Automatic annotation (TrEMBL):
Keywords: Signal
Signal peptide: 1-25
Keyword Transmembrane helix: no
Organism: Catalinimonas alkaloidigena
Annotated ASPIC/UnbV domain residues: 532-599
The keyword Ribosomal protein is annotated on this UniProt entry: no
Name of this chain's protein: Repeat domain-containing protein
Length: 1118
């Protein structure tokens, strides 16, 4: 056993070295439009001497209970709240680890009486989660207590206390089949099979696996050491049906939520798991079984997932979800716990079936159904909820009664065991002594490690678009807080807070909100579910819904009160209230008065189907397979970080490209989709019926090029469309022949022949191509944007102006466009007459580039200085021109990185990359940097920095010294070696208003457009009302594995009003779903109406057609 412990400690160190990495966030100066002022809200701590709640979860560490022998030793206890004697006052139960549990009777006015002994609550054991539930249907709440600890199984027996009606309880877990002896962290009760009684879900962990972060084959057959349990209630006896029901996946559960995530009326189970184990979402199949669907619902997960909670955060009637992790809010602390990033191990993990996992809180916004399942966008970073320290219990609760659910998060961990200096020291100890000595030294070291009390966090919900940190309103000092619950303890209508702390008295926070209306709802359910668990209650005020799902197991190891609390602000009444019971019965009440407790009884409900409004038919539907557009883009595996460890993202996954045009002269539009290394590009030829047949452009098996952009245009003036393909990527050295662009000449019938003699030699990685008659000589010329210099990020790529001379192109950049060849790391460009002089000007955007415009002065290109202000430097991906505001000139629309990132930049506090050979080894180095409170700091973790630049290893022997080092201090000895500095000041996507006189003003798109990088956009006109329709696609899965993949985009339609204002159309209404990495979007005309074509990196081609009969004369015109 001691050897296993020794290995575990080493594995924890190696896991942190692998996955914790660095986590940085510089200040974001941008917030949405301020919400109306909230009613005055503050909390007053009620001291134990006044309340009588004197519970302290005091933890004594010894040779049995310590971090080495029991790694959940600091996880703390929970809280259960409920009205045990039906006097209208919620009572309190606290679980203790090495101290007895305590039960307190609410006597009113925040006065409580300890009735633990008289109630018959037994001492002993290590208690974890607790839930109040009426299991025997007598109308009285019973109490179920989960237990764990470094004890033999007999001392881990869960307990069921049946309420005797006289404030005494009888422990009957064994006779009920609920005396489980696994390491159980929490239980939830729900009627999963709709037979009327309450079944049980037990969330478990184990202390037997001493290496929980070791990459091992997934166990999904029920044979793992830590598989949760589903217990079916068979008339008062619980039977384990886990395996038959599909509950078979191994895990280390810390968060448990029973919810209806897919809205089918049947409750599902969401379990957030610690360590490397996948989170689990068991979707109810409505036949007594569940299907594990976490990966299908959530595109990435928290790595060290702890508590979770589910609630409708933006009042759209859909349940959203949040899980907390342990990412510090202080960037210094982030670097002190930042181990090395191992992208290969991360890739291996994902290929082995583990979900992508990142160490931060995750907030999943429910966007509605795409077919049979809902789609969630993880936008915790955009909302500022991603880094709240070592967090335990998240709870959605409307503390200020304004009608929007706020967020409470408890924090703190008794020992700072993630400090990298501590971990490195332990690793050295583990490799230098015998097992017994090593374990003794590590136990002593853990108990001597500094404590890290943290501020509990309270975030005020600003109408679902942003959260305001109001943690100071809690009035609490930093603590070690674990389980938490809420209830209206004093009957004044607002939620009070109850928190279980480690080594400190429990906290009772009186909510002093006085100026807002409320409605409290209590359900009187059927005989075997008297509290209505699993019901859904929705109230409507001025058309806005507030929805509550009746589930009391919430947050972390805790259960909240059964009374539902609705805040109503200054509303004088509720327009309507709808209750849906678990079996489908329902009730509607109209014009409900406020400031009351309303009881809704099951016996008064109706049995006929509830006539809810049907969701609108989506405006577009996916038709790729039906139209013969079956295509999946593929990439051969390449790891950029092997040669450039400090890159912020891969540069080798930029395809595929897309080009549209009639290539065979039959009057129908065809399309070309670019290929990649060892994968040929594909032509899709449209047939008379509007379907397509495909063929490879160049089926040679030894294809080397990466096709990153393409254009169909008449290069030689013979009346047909030729094909130009840009070669790019980061997989080859600069000067490689595989970067050479290719021009395929069309024979007029859609047969293409590669002609290598029509292009100059440009063997540099490309990013884009833009076509226009630059010199007005009647033929089409090209701008070829240079993307990058391999092994030299962030040096600008090599761009070129190619002039058409009789079908052959010559490079004339320096003579016709001085400075254009090194304009930047170009991602996109377009030609547009922005100054209205009749000559198309060149607009260029790129990574760490400003909006750059070259004015066309009768065939010569001159920089338009006023348009390239410092403030426009961004991480731009795409650009297009259109008259957005209807004033007659061309404005510019541009896609950027978005705001759903760990980095937030501004003109005052930019994101930067410094380049140069900092150690004189002849290899280019790139050091990303960020700002925090006016100081610039290096971004990379110390491990990664010294791997790239070993000279820094001598200067930084300890992580704490590096964590506080500013960028100027880091580079001071090598400042003369800085050869390149790239900066970004703007990361929002938006449009640039052309104000004439070469002046452009930036306007960001709405918040929904900032959830992910926008890689491409398309502006069309609606056939209904001629309004502007702007289609956005994006995401990026190539980001380094500490930051994590940017996948908050699902495709978005913005509808314009002609003045520059944009309104998001929810994807469930538009039907425009692009959940992968969308690279290019373009319209294609067909006899049945226009198609929207989207190509995705390492994903399928998507094609969308209108669901309504189209106007035959209508076409999607960019």
């Amino acid at each position: 056993m001691t050897t296993d412990v020794h290995l575990y400690r080493r594995s924890l160190s190696s896991c942190l070295l692998f996955l914790l990495g660095s986590a940085f966030s510089c200040q974001s100066p941008r917030t949405p439009e301020a919400a109306p002022p909230a009613p005055a809200t503050r909390f007053t701590a009620v001291p134990a001497a006044e309340s009588g709640v004197d519970f302290v979860n005091a933890l004594q560490e010894d040779d049995t209970f310590n971090l080495v022998d029991f790694y959940y030793v600091y996880n703390g206890g929970g809280v259960a709240v409920g009205d045990l004697n039906n006097d209208g006052l919620p009572d309190l139960f606290f679980t203790g680890n090495r101290v007895p549990n305590r039960l307190y009777l609410n006597q009113g006015d925040f006065r409580f009486k300890d009735i633990t002994a008289s109630a018959g609550i037994q001492p002993g054991g290590w208690s974890t989660g607790a839930t109040m539930v009426d299991l025997n249907g007598d109308g009285l709440l019973d109490l179920y207590v989960c237990r764990s600890g470094n004890y033999p199984a007999a001392q881990r027996t869960n307990q069921l206390y049946l309420n005797q009606g006289d404030l005494t309880f009888r422990e009957v877990a064994a006779s009920w089949g609920l005396a489980d002896t696994t390491h159980t962290n929490q239980a939830a009760f729900f009627d999963y099979d709709r037979d009327g009684d309450l079944d049980a879900y037990l969330m478990t962990s184990t202390n037997a696996i001493r290496n929980p972060n070791k990459l091992t084959p997934l166990k999904e057959d029920g044979t793992g050491l830590s598989v949760d349990k589903l217990l079916r209630n068979d008339g008062g006896t619980f039977v384990d049906v886990s395996h038959a029901a599909g509950i078979r996946h191994d895990g280390f559960g810390l968060g448990l939520a029973v919810c209806d995530l897919n809205g089918d009326g049947w409750e599902d189970v969401w379990v957030s798991n610690d360590f490397l184990a996948n989170d689990h979402l068991y979707v109810n199949n409505q036949d007594g079984t569940f299907t594990e669907s976490a990966k299908a619902y959530f595109r990435h997960h928290a790595h060290f997932a702890m508590g979770n909670d589910v609630g409708d955060v933006n009042n759209d009637g859909l349940p959203d979800a949040l899980v907390v992790d342990m990412l510090p809010s202080d960037p210094v602390d982030q670097k002190k716990m930042a181990g090395p990033v191992n992208p290969h191990q991360f890739e291996t993990m994902v290929r082995a079936g583990y979900h992508p996992q990142y160490m931060r809180n995750m907030f999943y916004l429910n966007l509605g159904h795409n077919g049979p399942r809902p789609v969630f966008a993880e936008i915790g970073q955009q909302l500022g909820l991603h880094q709240t320290d070592w967090s335990w219990a998240p709870l959605w609760v409307d503390v200020d009664l304004d009608g929007w659910q706020d967020l409470l998060i408890t924090n703190g961990y008794l020992r700072d065991i993630t400090d990298m200096d501590f971990i490195v020291h332990n690793s050295q100890v583990a490799s230098s002594g015998d097992v017994e000595t090593t374990n003794r030294v590590m136990r002593e070291g853990a108990t001597q490690q500094a404590s890290i009390p943290r501020q509990n966090r309270l975030f005020r919900n600003q109408r679902g678009e942003r959260f305001e940190d109001q943690s100071a309103a809690l009035g609490m000092a930093p603590s070690f807080s674990n389980g938490a619950a809420y209830a209206d303890l004093d009957g004044d209508g607002d939620p009070d807070l109850i928190i279980n702390n480690l080594n400190a008295p429990a906290t009772l926070l009186r909510n002093t909100t006085t100026s807002a209306a409320f409605l409290k709802v209590q359900l009187a359910g059927p005989p075997q579910n008297t509290k209505g668990l699993g019901s859904e209650v929705t109230i409507y005020t001025d058309g806005m819904p507030q929805t509550r799902h009746v589930a009391v197991t919430r947050g972390y190891q805790s259960s909240v009160d059964y009374t539902l609390l609705f805040g109503l602000g200054d509303h004088a009444g509720v327009d309507s209230l709808v209750v849906r019971w678990p079996d489908g019965r329902w009730e509607v009440q109209k014009h409900v008065p406020v400031n009351q407790t309303l009881t809704v009884r099951y016996e008064d409900s109706r049995t006929e189907p509830y006539a809810s409004s049907s969701p609108p038919v989506p405006q577009w539907q996916e038709v790729a397979a039906a139209r013969g557009l079956t295509y999946v883009h593929q990439e051969e595996f390449y790891m950029d970080y092997d040669v450039e460890p400090l890159l912020p993202h891969k540069l080798s996954e930029q395809g595929p490209c897309l080009a549209v045009g009639d290539v065979n002269g039959d009057g129908r539009e065809d399309l070309f989709v670019g290929g990649s290394y060892r994968h040929a590009g594909t032509l899709f030829l449209q047939e008379a019926a509007g379907t397509f047949r495909s063929r490879a452009l160049d089926p040679a098996p030894d294809k080397q090029e990466e096709d990153v952009d393409a254009a169909l245009f008449d290069a030689d003036g013979d009346g047909d469309l030729d094909l130009y393909i840009v070669g790019g990527s980061n997989e080859f050295p600069d000067g490689s022949p595989y970067f050479q662009d290719r021009l395929y000449m069309n024979d007029g019938r859609g047969n293409f022949r590669l002609d290598r003699n029509r292009l100059p030699e440009i063997r540099h990685s490309g990013g884009c191509v833009a076509v226009a008659d630059v010199d007005h000589d009647g033929d089409l010329d090209l701008f070829r944007g240079g993307r990058l210099v391999p092994l030299a990020f962030p040096q600008p790529g090599v761009s070129a102006l190619l002039v058409n001379q009789g079908g052959t192109f010559t490079e004339q950049t320096d003579s016709l466009a001085p400075g254009l060849s090194r304009v930047g790391m170009v991602t996109d460009a377009c030609w547009a007459d922005v100054d209205g002089d009749g000559w198309d000007d060149l607009v260029v955007v790129g990574e760490y580039m400003p909006l750059t415009i070259y004015r066309n002065d009768r065939g010569r290109l001159q920089p338009m200085d006023a348009a390239t202000r410092r403030e426009t430097n961004g991480l731009w991906n795409c650009v297009a021109a259109a008259d957005v505001d209807g004033d007659g000139d061309l404005d510019l629309l541009a896609g950027n990185l978005g705001l759903n990132t760990r980095y937030q930049c501004s003109p005052q506090q930019p994101m930067s990359v410094y380049g140069g050979d900092f150690d004189g080894n002849g290899r280019w180095d790139a050091i990303p940097a960020y700002y925090e409170d006016g100081q610039e700091y290096p971004t990379p973790p110390l491990f990664d920095l010294v791997r790239q630049i070993p000279v820094f290893k001598k200067r930084y022997q300890r992580f704490d010294s590096y964590a506080q080092t500013t960028l100027p201090e880091l580079l001071a000895p090598v400042r003369n070696q800085v050869r390149s500095v790239a900066r970004a000041y703007e990361q929002r996507s938006g449009w640039f208003e052309n104000q004439g006189d070469r002046r452009f003003v930036f306007h960001p798109f709405p918040a929904a457009a900032q959830r992910a990088p926008v890689n491409d956009l398309l502006l069309t006109t609606s056939e209904r009302d001629s309004s502007a329709e702007l289609w956005l696609i994006g995401n990026d899965h190539s980001v380094e594995p500490v930051e994590g993949q940017h996948d908050g985009g699902v495709g978005l339609l913005l509808r314009g009003d002609g003045t520059g204002q944009w309104e998001p159309v929810p994807p469930r209404q538009s039907g425009f779903w692009v959940e992968g990495v969308g690279r290019r979007v373009a319209p294609v005309a067909t006899p049945q109406g226009p198609l929207l074509i989207v190509v995705q990196n390492q994903g399928p081609l998507r094609a969308f057609a209108r669901t309504e009969p189209p106007d035959p004369s209508y076409a999607l015109e960019p």
